[in-house]
Specification:
By secondary structure, the protein is mainly α. The two termini are about 30 Å apart. InterPro entries: AA/rel_permease1 (IPR002293), AminoAcid_Transporter (IPR050598). It is a multi-pass membrane protein.
Length: about 475
């Protein structure tokens, strides 16, 4: 039985570190570009937070009813009990084959190197500095979480506190910009000078708004992170009810204030046309070009916290799948040797990430991997959301598993519909300026996501054929 060593504070930072990766430092420029105005972009961020809050409530309900390691695996198994192990095999393909920690380990490497030197090295080389540092990052995380759980949790908590400090610095820099204190030669943008100016340029195109919302909801992915380790949480139901909403509220406030900071320091044209991260533009306009290196170090630490949090949860998911017997060499992946931690489960996730880091070329292929990580999760989230509603109104006389209250029905409906949007929209051809890739077709990551599910189904057909 896993030791219950995760309290409310650690649970908050397990969620917080997964939520705050690098999205808030990069996506606001894209969202402003497609929304067209400051007011509409901020409104869409608020809408995204509402969807995330609804999702958090869905996971609180499921997690309180089934407080075990594994997250969605448990909820899907409860909904689909026949054929035996089919849904588990489909979920296992998604959990094991997608390298969730690869992207932010590369971001950590890129910004760590950039914080020391502005010179860039060719990332296409097999053993480029970026890939080597990413390898070191993932290996260090594997050792921490696999050999000394308390040390890994303490580092996660420390980086969580540091992220709060980083975000406070960005917000504080925004207030300095609002007061008009910009670098010499930087014109005052005046984005908030009037109500009309705030909403000027708002777009009415459905495809553009869909692109914005897709990016925003992606920034909120991770609120379910503690659900993967509920067997190690003190009083899981109470901890979820506190840690989940608190994390969403804090992150939403920071997201909105960071956006205000960006808009206070640069004009709309600067933000949308700059090829740099919008946070770097903020620091450059307020503190000068040298401050960009400091920001690079900040973003590297934020990415490291995300890698720690992602690996922590994925190791436990892989271990739970090993205990279910659905993986090849299941007893090996289910092991807790030598430190009563899922070292082998963490190692499986580490191996998938290393393959992606060294095998996937830069450009479209890497963007495809990132998009494909989020696509299957949208399908799974829609299923477990409408599954809650189904269990509240069962077709037989067995009685509802969950009381059909407004605190269940409204969040499940909102979150379910939002995730249907997320996995349907990528199938619709976007306008030319919203194309996600330079060379690949727009639907390729959606096809990849469905193929992952198909791999799981084929594995079930081969592994369980002839079994009762």
């Amino acid at each position: 039985m896993p030791k219950r060593q995760i309290g409310v504070v650690s649970a908050v930072f397990i969620i917080f570190n997964r939520l705050i990766g690098t999205g808030i430092f990069a996506t606001p420029s894209t969202i402003l570009k497609f929304s067209g105005s400051i007011g509409l972009s901020l409104s869409l961020w608020i809408l995204g937070s509402v969807i995330a809050a609804a999702g958090m409530q869905v996971y609180i309900i499921w997690g309180s009813a089934l407080p075990y390691n594994g997250g969605e695996k448990n909820y899907l198994e409860y909904l689909f009990r026949r054929p035996k192990q089919l849904i588990t095999s489909i979920y296992a393909a998604n959990a094991v084959l997608l390298a969730y920690g690869a992207a932010n380990s590369l971001v950590f490497a890129e910004y760590t190197l950039a914080s020391f030197s502005s010179a860039s090295s060719p990332s296409s080389a097999i053993f480029s500095p970026v890939r080597v540092v990413a390898f070191i990052c993932l290996t260090g995380v594997l050792a921490l979480h696999g050999l000394h759980i308390p040390a890994g949790i303490r580092l996660q908590n420390l980086l969580g506190f540091m992220k709060i400090g980083i975000l406070l610095i960005i917000v504080g820099t925004g207030f300095i910009a609002l007061s008009g204190n910009l670098q010499e030669g930087v014109p005052r943008p005046g984005n908030f000078d009037s109500w009309e100016l705030i909403w000027a340029g708002s777009t009415t195109g459905g495809s553009a708004l869909c692109t914005c919302l897709y990016n925003i909801i992606y920034c909120f992915i991770g609120f379910s992170n503690v659900n993967y380790a509920l067997s190690e949480v003190h009083n899981p139901a109470r901890t979820l009810r506190i840690a989940g909403p608190l994390s969403i509220i804090v992150v939403t406030i920071f997201y909105l204030l960071c956006n205000v900071a960006y808009y206070a320091a640069a004009s709309k044209e600067e933000i949308t046309s700059s090829g740099r991260l919008v946070a770097a533009l903020l620091f450059k306009n307020v503190w000068g070009p040298r401050a960009e290196r400091v920001l690079n170090a900040f973003i590297a630490l934020s990415a490291l916290g995300n890698v720690l949090s992602v690996s922590f949860s994925q190791g436990r998911v892989n271990q739970a799948l090993g205990k279910e017997g659905v993986l090849p060499f299941s007893s090996f992946w289910a092991s807790s040797w030598p430190a009563k931690a899922p070292l082998t489960g963490l190692g499986l996730h580490w191996a998938m990430c290393i393959i992606v880091i060294f095998a996937v070329p830069p450009g479209d292929a890497f963007n495809f991997i990132i998009n494909m990580n989020s696509y299957p999760l949208a399908v799974i989230n829609s299923v477990i959301s409408f599954g809650l509603i189904y269990l509240a109104f069962p077709p037989d006389d067995s009685g509802p598993l969950f009381a059909p209250s407004s605190s269940l029905l409204f969040p499940a409906l909102i979150f379910g519909c939002a995730n249907i949007f997320l996995f349907v929209v990528p199938l619709i051809k976007p306008p030319p300026e919203s194309e996600p890739y330079e060379h690949l077709p727009y639907w390729v990551h959606a096809m990849g996501g469905w193929c992952i599910f198909l791999v799981g189904a084929l594995w079930w057909m081969w592994h369980y054929r002839g079994r009762p």
